[in-house]
Structure formats: structure tokens, C-alpha cells
Amino acid sequence: MSRDTIRLPHDAYRLLQTLRAAGHSAYVVGGCVRDSLLGRLPGDWDICTSARPDEMKALFCSQRLILTGEKHGTVAVILHGKPYEMTTYRLDGSYRDHRHPDKVAFADRVEEDLARRDMNDAPIDESNYAELAHRIEAYINEFEENGTDNILVDIDTTI
Questions:
Q1: Contact partners, residue 118, CB within 8 Å, separation at least 6
Q2: 49 class by beta-carbon count within 10 Å (0-12 exposed, 13-18 middle, 19+ buried)
Q3: Cβ burial, residue 83 (10 Å; 0-12/13-18/19+)
Q4: If you count Cβ atoms within 10 Å of the first and of the last residue's Cβ in the chain, which end, N or C, has fewer?
Q5: pTM, whole model, 2 decimals?
Q6: 81-97 pLDDT, tens digit each
């Protein structure tokens, strides 16, 4: 995989489009974006969304769901045997185990959610997320028009 390509799996695209069609905002986030920008093949695809857990459960009720992270805003949908974690925008409290927050508060804006994310290898924060989101959105539109399974993201400039 080259550094100038993000290959958005069809199932991840389908989840994003379902959330957006229901009036929610939704973005791929975290390690999949970092790995793609570093030229690595992502092992999984995480989505953050304005949808609350109950709304996600209703939207994807016909799919197999994993609800173990629901109190933290995470609902996993199993598509073709692969889990896709979708998490409501949130603000985290303190972490005792460095992995799971002691408490969370749901947020309304992606910028609030991004402020809690740690992207040491390829920082993506509210200062550059809008540009990246704009590029991904442009290629999603390209996907819809041309029906290709690959969404190419031009990263010839610094994000």
C-alpha cells in the first residue's frame, strides 16, 4: 500500500453512508487513518459518529452487534465476519488502566472527540482534521459516482 492511498473497505463505506443517510455525521478515525497515511494496511477500521448507541443499535438492528462497549458509546457491527467499532463522539474522564475511561460524556461535535485522541505517529487533531475529512468526503463522492472500491486520497501536500 502506498502512502498516497487510503483503501476504504466497502463495509466501512456502507456503515458511514447508513449513518449519514439517517442524519448523523460519521468519519473513519484512529489507527486506520494513521496507518493509511503511513502507507500501512490497516488491521481494522473505527468510526466516530454523532449517533448515540441506541440510534446505532436501531440503524443496524438487522446485523450482528457487539454491545460490550455500549456504556462508553461503542457499538460494533459485524459485517462479513469482521467487526467495525462505531463510537459516539465523546469526552473522556480519567483512565485508570490507560485503555478504558472511568467515565465518558457524549459530545455533539467531531472536534470535541478528536481532542481526546492520541495519534503520536501521525498527529491528526482539530487543526488538520477538517482538511483530511474534506479530502475523504471528496473521494467518497467519487466512489458514489464511479463505483470503485478504492478511494484514493491525494496527500501530496502537508495536512
A1: none
A2: buried
A3: middle
A4: N
A5: 0.69
A6: 999 999 999 887 677 76
Q: Which DSSP string do the residues of 32-93 spell out, in sequence order?
A: HHHHHHTTPPPS--EEEES--HHHHHHHTTTSEEE-TTGGGTEEEEEETTEEEEEEE-EEE-
Would you say the C-alpha torsion 32, 30, 123, 128 has a positive or negative sign? Answer: positive
Q: Would you state the cell numbers that stand for residue 120, as one nine-digit string?
A: 503520536
Question: Strands 82-88 and 74-79, how do they pair?
Answer: antiparallel
Q: Which residue has the cell 474522564?
A: 93
Is the pLDDT at 154 greater than 50? The verdict is: no
60, 78 contact by CB (below 8 A)? no
